[in-house]
Amino acid sequence: MKYCKRCLMPDTRPRITFNEEGFCNACEYGDKKKQIDWKERRRELEVLLESCKTKNGYWDCIVPWSSGKDSSAIAHRLKFEFGMHPLLVTVAPQVQTEEGKHNQMALLELGFDHLLFTLNPRVHKRLSRKHFIQYGDPWMGWSQAVNSIPVKAAVDFNIPNIFYAEHGETEYGGKVLSKKHQKERDLTEVREIMIGHDPKEWVDEGISLKDIAAYMYPEKKDIERVGVTAHYFGYYHKWNSIDNYFYAKKHWDFMTVQEGHTDFDLPGVPKKGRTEGTFTNYDSIDDKLDNIYYFLQYIKFGFGRAVRDASRLIQNGVITREEGLKLALKYDGEFPSRTFKDFLEWTDIEETEFWDIVDSFRNPDIWKKINGEWRLRYALA
Questions:
Q1: How many whole angstroms separate alpha carbon 144 and alpha carbon 211?
Q2: Which CATH architecture has domain 38-236?
Q3: pTM of this structure
Q4: How far is CA 325 from CA 112, 259, 272, 321, in A?
């Protein structure tokens, strides 16, 4: 494993690249963001939003919304800063947290319309189990639904504009298809990079074609008929997740994780509460199963949630590499014991079976066993 010399991201992250100086492409983009004329980008956004506004009081756009800080900040800015009338669209969390419930109502009570889609739990639990066993990714079905349901809503409600958060391949190091794709989502990119599967492949003796309707994209002809365009808000507004947290904290009663205590020393971030596997208490806190997903990332790629969080903060100049390294060394790879039982119940998997499946996804080029314990071959440094 080779680690970025500026942040902490290793070359095992899918689609990441490094330049001759040893910096990853996410860090390179972090430098480019400093050169962007964000005032000009805002003017470009204002023109776009003006073209989206309806004249009859109907919804102007859709915001795919998790109730987390990022999508909430986008929804709030669109409504109160730019005068838009957004419809919030949510795919219900698999096992919602108390913090997620609180944050959902806190924003809605400011005056938003909300469409909540709940997946068939019988089918969804089966898919979570199936994808955990086959791919080490219990999130795969839910991720597909999160991508498909807002587009279905756009077609069914005849709302041509969708506003997503940031383009992850640009922001965090990945494959950028073109400059256009940095500001407009390409459905082919979603299928091939973000998901990598056609839901029809999931049909088996227990799941029929009808069962996966929620996971399927609308027909291309219907998308084109409505003229659905998915925009990335992060193209027009300088993206930094922790800024979104501070924005949420300022404008409504945004709740952070309540359990535990963090060593993350940043003004404005409470010391109370910490998500297992990292040092933060404000990011991706809506679903109890998130923590298992990030633990499996650590198993498959040799880096976990703390490395991810630290790298993003380093890339945006919030903390130094030395500060991020100290936090990552302490928390990365921590097992999420608080929500482990929830995951076993959701997937109907026994604990011994869980660990057998987990170990089957350890890459021998990354992991080695020493005195009966798994260790990374290339320590973070």
A1: 14
A2: 3-Layer(aba) Sandwich (3.40)
A3: 0.95
A4: 40, 23, 21, 6
